[in-house]
Amino acid sequence: MKLVGADFPDVNHDKYHVDILTAHFVRHPDWFDVVVGSNLFGDILSDLGPAVAGSIGIAPSANINPAKTAPSMFEPVHGSAPDIAGQGIANPIGQIWSGAMMLEHLGHPEAAADMMTAIEAVLKEPGALTPDLGGQANTTELGKAITEAI
């Protein structure tokens, strides 16, 4: 198995077994900026990380091809959330943030920054938040609030 860290000698990295890594996610979430793992462990950890922060609804994800020789994919960590489909309670921030990541990847950092600034501003407004963040707004209302902030 090739270690990804070997491709990035200027980046500090650590290697953990998944069992202790999950404990570190809970006890020391500030230790992590990027986590590289297998599909199974990556899926588990990508739900655990934002859940520790309060909601998986806010988390973006990306499968990035840094060489840009094939497409990259951007989506919220929670996927399509079929268990809450049609209820109007899904948090759109994960999808919007994924869009910002995509814009950054495609070479539009200013547009990505505008989206992130809007997300941050709206998160400070309790009335605009969906139930997973303790608010009463629905999916459309939160999405519109972010759109207006942009």
Describe what this molecule looks like in 3D.
The chain has helices at residues 18-27, 39-53, 93-105, 109-123, 139-149; strands spanning 60-63, 73-76. With 150 residues, it is mainly alpha-helical. Strands 1-2 form a two-stranded antiparallel ribbon. The model has no long low-confidence stretch (mean pLDDT 90).
Count of alpha/pi helices: 5
Low-confidence stretches: none
Largest sheet: 2 strands, antiparallel
The dominant shape is globular
Largest sheet, order of strands side by side? 1-2
Strand content: 5-15%
Tell me, rounded to a whole number, the average pLDDT: 90
Q: How many E strands?
A: 2
- Give the termini separation: 43 Å
Provide keyphrases for this structure.
two-stranded antiparallel ribbon, mainly alpha, 5 helices, 150 residues, 2 strands, globular
